[in-house]
Design goal:
Helix 3 packs across helix 4. With about 170 residues, this protein is mostly helical. It has one domain. The termini are far apart. The mean pLDDT is about 90. The relative contact order is 0.14.
């Protein structure tokens, strides 16, 4: 990815999940690590999560006509950050819980909510992201995005959207 584009695009993504009242640079290191980690879809259906994530690039281009003429970066894989932002938007649509709240719930469910720039452990972050991407979390989803108390099936072999649906059934009064 072009370094100038990467910086401008990252800042645009970061602004989508920035918490009001929290200094902008509080989670910069964490979000950069998540941005630089590729989301690898292993199960049919999760390719949709990757596609949703990369669709953010077109949204960015429509909003930012700043001379990003080279489209070579469009072919890059989806980052975990892009996927999480896109998934949080879908979650908002299905629940009316704001996407920013979903995004930070995902971060907390992964065990990364305390990884501020003042408390930053890149080895730990990379370990958590590796476990998530390669589905090395627990049967019940612990260590992933959607931990469950009473899973009906192995969350490691369940596509993310169905994990989300079961998580909603167990956690939200709908």
């Amino acid at each position: 990815m072009d370094p100038i584009f990467e910086t401008v695009y990252f800042d645009w993504l970061y602004a989508k999940v920035h918490l009001d009242g929290v200094p902008f640079d509080t989670y910069c290191g964490l979000l950069k690590a998540i941005f630089r980690t590729e989301f690898v879809w292993l199960l049919s259906g999760d390719d949709n999560r990757a596609e949703d994530g990369t669709d953010l690039r077109m949204e960015f281009l429509k909003q930012n006509k700043k001379g990003f003429h080279s489209m070579s970066w469009f072919d890059d894989g989806c980052s975990v950050l892009e996927m999480l932002i896109a998934l949080s938007r879908r979650a908002e649509f299905d629940t009316d819980i704001p996407s920013i709240d979903w995004f930070w719930r995902f971060i907390n469910n992964l065990g990364l909510g305390d990884q501020t720039d003042q408390n930053f452990d890149i080895d730990y972050i990379n370990e958590v992201l590796y476990r998530f991407v390669w589905r090395l979390y627990e049967y019940d989803g612990e260590g992933g995005l959607f931990p469950l108390r009473h899973p009906s099936r192995d969350q490691r072999t369940t596509e993310l959207w169905y994990q989300f649906s079961e998580y909603i059934s167990e956690n939200e009064p709908y």
